[in-house]
Amino acid sequence: MSRRSIYLDGFAHGAQPIPAASRKGPLVVTGGVHGIDRATGALADGLEAQVAAMFYNLSAILVAAGGSMDDLVKLTVKVRSNDAREVINRTWVAYFPDPAVRPARHTFLVDTLPGAMLVQCEGMAFVED
User: What is the dotted CATH code of the domain comprising 3-126?
Assistant: First the structure.
């Protein structure tokens, strides 16, 4: 079983040679997923827009890996401010309305997100073929 790098047009980690995710068998693990606008290459403007773009990018990465948000089993979210939790929770519930089948999530406060980045996540998914 070989590992496969997952790339997404318009999504990158700057000049770093890092794929958006890696898949080995049914396991898909992302790198840091941030709120970049893939059409412009710029970080989305403001918390609401960054959270929306982050979830949109996460979904697109999982699709590129052969899965979907339904395959997500764990999401780790880094936030610059605790104020982000309310925005994340609204988007979280929109993606996962049924509390009986939501993925696990851990959200924690960090002060080391680069530049104007306000939120970033890392996901783990189990994608069955």
Answer: 3.30.1330.40
